[in-house]
Amino acid sequence: TSEIRRSVEEKVNEVESRNEKIDFLTFVPDGEPTLDLNLGNHIRALREFGYKIAVITNASLIFDPEVRENLYYADWVSVKIDAITAEVWHKINRPHGLLDLDRILMGIEEFSDNFNGLMVTETMLVRDVNDNHEELKNIAVYISKLGSYRSYLAVPTRPPAEKAVKPPQEYNLYNGYHIFVENGIDTELLIGYEGNAFAFTGNVEDDLLSITSVHPMRKDAVLSYLSKAGSSWDTVQKLIDDKKIIELNYNGTEFYMRRLSG
User: Fold this and answer.
1) DSSP state for residue 35 in the 8-state scheme
2) Contacts of 259 (CB under 8 A, 6+ apart)
3) pTM of the model
């Protein structure tokens, strides 16, 4: 704990010296944070810096009461929910043989019921694995009962261990977004675009790419934005022609979404 505290202190001092903003001190190591039996002690030790603490976990051990107790010390926790059915879960997460999906899901529910901070969920969509309508619906229904703050739909953006792993087709990602929203879930996309979402920078193309990388935009919303920015539909058409955004139809309404790179 003391070693971690010293390391964090150095980084905090460095960032503060540049007058940069720190939102959270986040536990997201190369492995799984909850494997550390001293996670709770580490979190308490870092409280002295005055910043909120976040933990990003794959939730594989959240069925363990001691793991949940450690996570309760955090302010913001992200849990991974990639599947609800056991067959899909085994295919996408390749879990250890002693892990049980039902116990993990029950552990997430228990944690959500007792956590005083903000819990979010992350679902990684992989083509032809968990991006079908039925599994997306199952995941959304489960998450809707958790009372989580927000849900993120992510896609593989780094070279995977297996070449067969590919991001979903744009429409399947788009369909998943709407399934989540229709179940009352505040949903955002994580598709690998490093943008400044929702900030008006004066560069209409960059702003549209930023917004549509997080939330698909209805055509009327795009037109309204263009009007306020003093721009025309030519800007959108250029982004479509350059294959940077994609036009999709959902229940008779046109939407625009950042195109996946993969």
Assistant:
1) G
2) 170, 243, 244, 245, 246
3) 0.82
